[in-house]
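Note to self: the last two entries modelled the partners one at a time, which told us nothing about the interface. This time every component goes in together.
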Amino acid sequence: GAGVSQTPSNKVTEKGKYVELRCDPISGHTALYWYRQSLGQGPEFLIYFQGTGAADDSGLPNDRFFAVRPEGSVSTLKIQRTERGDSAVYLCASSLSAGTGVNYGYTFGSGTRLTVV
Amino acid sequence: AQRVTQPEKLLSVFKGAPVELKCNYSYSGSPELFWYVQYSRQRLQLLLRHISRESIKGFTADLNKGETSFHLKKPFAQEEDSAMYYCALRSGGSNYKLTFGKGTLLTVNP
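The predicted structure of the combined assembly is written out below.
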């Protein structure tokens, strides 16, 4: 597609429920990233995919968080047993590949605002 | 560990006044620095990067390795510059991960 698409744009869920957040990157972008932005903070890295594999998941806060990208395109961030502290905007970004230089800039999606009540 | 500090949460100036948004970083290697901007109800987008040494929308930023700073400057602010600005660092070793500051909300008053 023309840009990075994230769905849903807003999600309200009850504490303890399971949620899935979807990211559809720019066609042809092999690198995909998830970030989380809490209120009053800058985005914080969660996980990076190169193709289908998670090359770096060091930013995932705990084992309730998991992400997949089975066909190297769309990615889903999954959160189990949600807690109120998980409330944040979850941002997805993609790039042609991972690296330095002009050709490896990120394009961000609009984000999913998750509210756990 | 790398860190990006934006000391001002809020910055308010009048139209036509100079503006400087401060950014300091902590990183032992050779970093790549960026400024991202988020206008109201829009997605986060790249404003400029230090390796390009470019001016975008009248903004410039110079990497000062001695002071570990990457301040964003514009000589004459416009109302349409009002937005949230984030400074970000990408390390040379793990060159995919961005570390962001907490952001500065710039308001340009008429």
